[in-house]
Structures are given as structure tokens and as C-alpha cells.
């Protein structure tokens, strides 16, 4: 999409006002991001979920700032006309503001990200304020926060009772007041996500948060079932099963190599007779032709 122009945070807020939903997708490498941009995606998130779906970890906790910079750089090279966010990984924004700014600077200067995303509520509001004051667009992330999975007791739905619903509302309002330009709501009950979306003037992006957020995000590998051991998720819709196609394609390749049916004649390159003579000698070459 050569004529496509990347969104900015002013346009996103206008889209919320006009009721135009935002589409967001994770991507972690050049081909994935290039395909997402060509398909017309609004935002790309280089999520620390790459730890689970690309690097083979069982959580996002081992992902480092070096990992995020490396993958963000790949994505920004591919999708030069799309708004790109990068996750701040575990324990890179809970220390001093100087340490946080170093990480942000790397993601934006080295990685080329337009904005960063940070998990947490009231406890990160002062950091969000400092980053916003420094000119850094920050997307908040509340509800299920995978970096805190050991504290919240696993991957549990958030906002199932009145107390938890009020906590989420308070966190969302505080993040908006701190200067966040948008908030991601993960695994939040639909009613609570709808109430938060209505209360905020900034966009909400939902994943497993129902139908009434201002936008939706899915993980690239979930949307396309691009994995060897896919696990069904209630909040995910599969739009293409490329994992099965990849497995079938590789399996056929293996069989054809074993059966010597690949490569075929159409896949090989012939040499001039002079080359054959230099390799085998003129007599041998002529004898082979007779």
C-alpha cells in the first residue's frame, strides 16, 4: 500500500469520536509486518508476546530490551507506512526514570518505534506522565497483564465483580490523566470494557475484551494459526490455518527428496559442452553423446 499514510495519535482519537474502529495486529519480523501493512492494518504492535510465539519461552518474562529492539527494527523496516508500537519488557520501567528513558530511547531511536506500550495501572502513572512530558506516546495496558501473571494467579478474566470492575475503571482514568494516548484492555469482561471505553476520551484496544472497545488486536500467530502446537482460545478467531499448510508443504518436500522426484528437469541448470569437456575430457563427453 504505497499511498498509505501512518496514523498518528490525533487521528486515532478522531477515529474514536467518529466511531471508526482501529485494527491492530502483532508482528515480530520483516515478512509478517510487510504482509500486515499490505493488508491495510492500522497499527502494528511488536509485543513481548514474541517470547511465547517466536522465542519459545513459556511466558513473556525472559524477553529483554535487546530482543525488543532487534524485532522492532525488523518490523519498522517492513512497515514504513504504519504506526508501530513496541512493548517495554519486564522490569524495564519500574526503576528510575533515567533507566526507563534509556529503554524507550533504544526502542524509538534504534528500533524505530513510534510509541511504546507499558503494562500496569496506578503504579506506572508517574512514569507515563514523565514519558508523555518527554514527548513519548504511551499506550497503557490493563486487565490481564502477562508480565504480572505470577502475581495475579495465572491467565484469569478480569472485571468479574464490582470491586475489580471499579479498580479497572480507576486505572484507566488514571492512565488517561497521566497522558496515555490509548489503553489496551486484555481479558476484561465485555460490560466493564464497554463502560471504560465510554468513560475515556482516548481509544481502547481490546483483546478478549468484547465487542465495544474502540479497536481490536490479535496475535499474528493466533489469527493465522501459525504454530505447531496451537491451543484454542475463546477470544480468537482463526482467519487462515497456515500452520497446517506449512506442515503439509514441508512434508511433501521431504517425500520428494527421499523419492528423488525433486529437483525435476525444470529446476536444474545445464552447462555448455566446453564446461563438460573441461570436467570429463572431450573423449568422454563425445562418448556420452553417441
From TrEMBL:
Major localization class: cytoplasm
Encoding gene (name): panB
UniProt xrefs under Pfam families: Pantoate_transf
Active site, UniProt feature: 186 (proton acceptor)
Gene Ontology BP terms: methylation; pantothenate biosynthetic process
HAMAP family with a match to the protein in the record: PanB
Cellular localization per UniProt: Cytoplasm
GO cellular component, one term: cytoplasm
Residues that hold 3-methyl-2-oxobutanoate according to the record: 48-49, 87, 117
The reaction(s) this protein catalyses: (6R)-5,10-methylene-5,6,7,8-tetrahydrofolate + 3-methyl-2-oxobutanoate + H2O = 2-dehydropantoate + (6S)-5,6,7,8-tetrahydrofolate
Subunit architecture: Homodecamer; pentamer of dimers.
Pathway(s) served: Cofactor biosynthesis; (R)-pantothenate biosynthesis; (R)-pantoate from 3-methyl-2-oxobutanoate: step 1/2
Role noted for this protein: Catalyzes the reversible reaction in which hydroxymethyl group from 5,10-methylenetetrahydrofolate is transferred onto alpha-ketoisovalerate to form ketopantoate.
Family: Belongs to the PanB family.
Protein name: 3-methyl-2-oxobutanoate hydroxymethyltransferase
Source organism superkingdom: Bacteria
Listed cofactors: Mg(2+)
EC number(s) on file: 2.1.2.11
Cofactor note: Binds 1 Mg(2+) ion per subunit.
GO molecular function: 3-methyl-2-oxobutanoate hydroxymethyltransferase activity; magnesium ion binding; methyltransferase activity
PANTHER family linked to this entry: 3-METHYL-2-OXOBUTANOATE HYDROXYMETHYLTRANSFERASE
Keywords associated with the record: Cytoplasm, Magnesium, Metal-binding, Methyltransferase, Pantothenate biosynthesis, Transferase
Residues reported to bind Mg(2+): 48, 87, 119
Amino acid at each position: 500500500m504505497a499511498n498509505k499514510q501512518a496514523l498518528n495519535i490525533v487521528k486515532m482519537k478522531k477515529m474514536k469520536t467518529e466511531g471508526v474502529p482501529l485494527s491492530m495486529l502483532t508482528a515480530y519480523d520483516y515478512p509478517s509486518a510487510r504482509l500486515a501493512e499490505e493488508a491495510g492494518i492500522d497499527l502494528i504492535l511488536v509485543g513481548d508476546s514474541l517470547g511465547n510465539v517466536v522465542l519459545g519461552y513459556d511466558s513473556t518474562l525472559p524477553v529483554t530490551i535487546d530482543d525488543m529492539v532487534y524485532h522492532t527494527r525488523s518490523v519498522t523496516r517492513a512497515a514504513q507506512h504504519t504506526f508501530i508500537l513496541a512493548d517495554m519488557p519486564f522490569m524495564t520501567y519500574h526503576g528510575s526514570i533515567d533507566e526507563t528513558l534509556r529503554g524507550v530511547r533504544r526502542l524509538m531511536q534504534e528500533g524505530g518505534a513510534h510509541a511504546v506500550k507499558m503494562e500496569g495501572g496506578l503504579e506506572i502513572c508517574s512514569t507515563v506522565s514523565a514519558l508523555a512530558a518527554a514527548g513519548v506516546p504511551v499506550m497503557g495496558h490493563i486487565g490481564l497483564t502477562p508480565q504480572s501473571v505470577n502475581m495475579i494467579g495465572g491467565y484469569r478474566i478480569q472485571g468479574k465483580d464490582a470491586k475489580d470492575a471499579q479498580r479497572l475503571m480507576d486505572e484507566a482514568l488514571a492512565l488517561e490523566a497521566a497522558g496515555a494516548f490509548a489503553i489496551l484492555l486484555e481479558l476484561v469482561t465485555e460490560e466493564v470494557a464497554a463502560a471504560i471505553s465510554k468513560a475515556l476520551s482516548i481509544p481502547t484496544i481490546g483483546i478478549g475484551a468484547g465487542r465495544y472497545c474502540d479497536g481490536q488486536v490479535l496475535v499474528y500467530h493466533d489469527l493465522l494459526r501459525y504454530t505447531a502446537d496451537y491451543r484454542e482460545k475463546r477470544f480468537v478467531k482463526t482467519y487462515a490455518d497456515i500452520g497446517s499448510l506449512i506442515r503439509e508443504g514441508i512434508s511433501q518436500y521431504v517425500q520428494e527428496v527421499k523419492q528423488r522426484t525433486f529437483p525435476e528437469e525444470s529446476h536444474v541448470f545445464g552447462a555448455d559442452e566446453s564446461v563438460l569437456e573441461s570436467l570429463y575430457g572431450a573423449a568422454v563427453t563425445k562418448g556420452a553423446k553417441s
